[in-house]
Amino acid sequence: MKSKSIKDILTNNAIYIVLLLLFVTIIIIDPSFLSLKNAGFILSQSATRMIFACAIAGPIVLGGTDLSAGRLIGLSGLITASLLQAPDYIARVFPNLPQLPIWLPIILAMLICALFSLIHGYLVAKLKVAPFIASLGMQLVVYGLMSVYFDAVSDSAPIGVLDARFTGFAQNGITIFGFRFQFIILYAVIIVALVWFIWNKTKLGKNMFAIGGNIEAATVSGVNIVVNMLAIYVLAGLLYGFGGALEVARTGSATNALGQGYELDAIASCVVGGVSMRGGIGTIKGIITGVLLFQVISYGLVYIQVNPYLVYFIKGLIILIAVVIDTKKYIKKK
Amino acid sequence: MKRILSILLILVMLISLTACGNNNAPASSETPSASNAPSEQSSEESKNNKKPVIGVAIFDYSNNYVTYIRNSLMAVAGDKAEIQMVDAQNDQAKQVEQIDILLSKGVDVLCVNAVDPKAASTIIAKAKAADVPIIFFNRCPSAEDMHSYDKCWYVGTTPEDSGRMQAEMAIEAFSNDPSFDKNGDGVLQYVILKGTLGHPDAEARTQAVQDTFAAVEGFEAELLDVQPGDFKTQTAKDITDVWMGKFGDQIEMILANNDAMLLGAIEAARAEGYFSGDSSKVMGAIGINALPEILPAIKDGTIIGSVLSDAYTEGLCIFTMAYNVATGEDVYKGIDIKPDEMKAIRVPYIPISVYNVHIAEEMYEKALN
Hints:
The complex is a heterodimer.
Chain A: H1 2-12, H2 14-29, H3 36-61, H4 69-83, H5 103-125, H6 131-154, H7 164-171, E1 173-176, E2 179-182, H8 183-201, H9 203-213, H10 215-220, H11 225-251, H12 262-272, H13 284-303, H14 308-333
Antiparallel strand pairs in A: 1-2
Helix pairs in contact in A: 2-13, 2-14, 3-8, 3-11, 3-12, 3-13, 4-5, 4-6, 4-11, 5-6, 5-11, 7-11, 8-9, 9-11, 12-13, 12-14
Chain B: H1 2-29, H2 31-47, E1 53-58, H3 64-77, E2 82-87, H4 92-105, E3 109-112, H5 120-130, E4 134-137, H6 143-147, E5 152-156, H7 159-176, E6 187-194, H8 200-215, E7 220-228, H9 233-246, E8 253-256, H10 259-270, E9 284-289, H11 295-299, E10 305-308, H12 311-326, E11 344-346, E12 350-353, H13 357-368
Parallel strand pairs in B: 1-2, 1-3, 3-4, 4-5, 5-11, 6-7, 6-8, 8-9, 9-10
Antiparallel strand pairs in B: 10-12
């Protein structure tokens, strides 16, 4: 009995054990990895990824997925970058545009992303399209539109030289004992707290888990499936929009390639953090752990100069282990 | 009933969305021919009953540099020829199908920016069967393929040259400005942001930089790290973050395989105080492409420079050669650059520094007109 429970603990925490081993390996190879400076970089690189993971976790908990997330992030990045270029830069894409307050393009981008997510949610919730296909379609639609916009406004040249207020919004920060706390981390913390509140303290959150866990039971108990699902999708869209704006402010330029594949990183972080791809299960704590662990590993593997091809292999392995554990738990529950 | 209505509604929404996409697309990519067409068409048509039809196969519309080439090509073409342009979206199988379509529509000449240069033999076989000449550009087929068909030519660059020029700029800056040698050891400590692993330009540029450093006598350089940034700003920024954490002030110079990555590197280093006018925080940076976004940084001395790939001249050469063969003229008529032994016109790169930024600015003015 006792040996079985130890085995259980080991299998349930296999993912953390693997990651801990990798972490220890990185430190053994290069002890200088353990520094406040690196911690600051890892946290600021994780910031937007946390927002994306918290956003995409909603559709996943509902039992679906969202392959359009990366492109919506890119769309938001393109919109905000094109509207917030440095006013003294001659080759701006909109030369006659007055200097806008930075919140305006960000809100605009969030609303546009929310609109796309609303359409996506409608396809899934009301028209019962399989989420994988619906979001794949949305991904292509959004990519096509953003590429047309990109080509039209900037002739497909990267949109850079952004307004210093905008890049500062994400990159400014304070340094305490070599640990650089960028404001972007603060925004991530606020978003995470907000999503935690919605998930755990509101009716919408409870309904989300009910729908994801067992949609028939939720219907019978009087949950309005469509409205609740739409709300979760719109929330995801708003967060993609906000995160996309931060991503472009963080990195300083945007093309239509921005955001490509981000949804897969976000889904991987969710899975590693214990969000079930079958829906109904997931915690914010787990998601944040997943994002941080992934970022420590990606940063660490570059730090110790591992062959870049091998990095793909290691990341793939981590995801597979996480999915195997998820499946084992699911079978046990049944 | 309600269900059907809502399906219809969503269809209408999606269709209207894609429809506005369609309306916008020609506005950007085909404006030159569309807007110029009515003005001179009549005189041109009376002289020459039929305008040559030129099929252009682009490997990926979302590639910046090729976009400058295709915009230049459209601008140069004006109403002299009918241009039919297709986008392979980085998919070689799709491109071969598109070439089939262009050939069956009966184009007079093909301009091909191959997705994979190794697929050139397939493309050549198709064109040969239809007796249509080909101008390859941007991605160079093998010499063997080029010699397998007498009616095929190439317009492009010598990829190694951009890496060599980048290294030469680094050597010049390092030798002339002692402040770059921060640790005073006379050795240049540098990092390379490489493009996508296996990409011919990424490999050629990275190798050329190292070869050039090694070849110059009395110059010593130490490569701290080279990481693949996939030619993307975001990836490059994350890599440079790691470098800032690992090497910090040890880095004396950042060399990037393209400017998009250099932009990300500058952003990352700026958070650490570099590239922001602080004279105690020195770091050299050199890119490749000399994109419009990077020019202000070259102008105000934030970075050392970049290497301009002359998209306008490339577009001009492609169109001129295509037009020449379509109208039965000598293919090289009006081209100043001498072809090499594999019938290739190699447009030279130009190193751009604070002293000659105007060359790049003028090029973009012509390319974007």
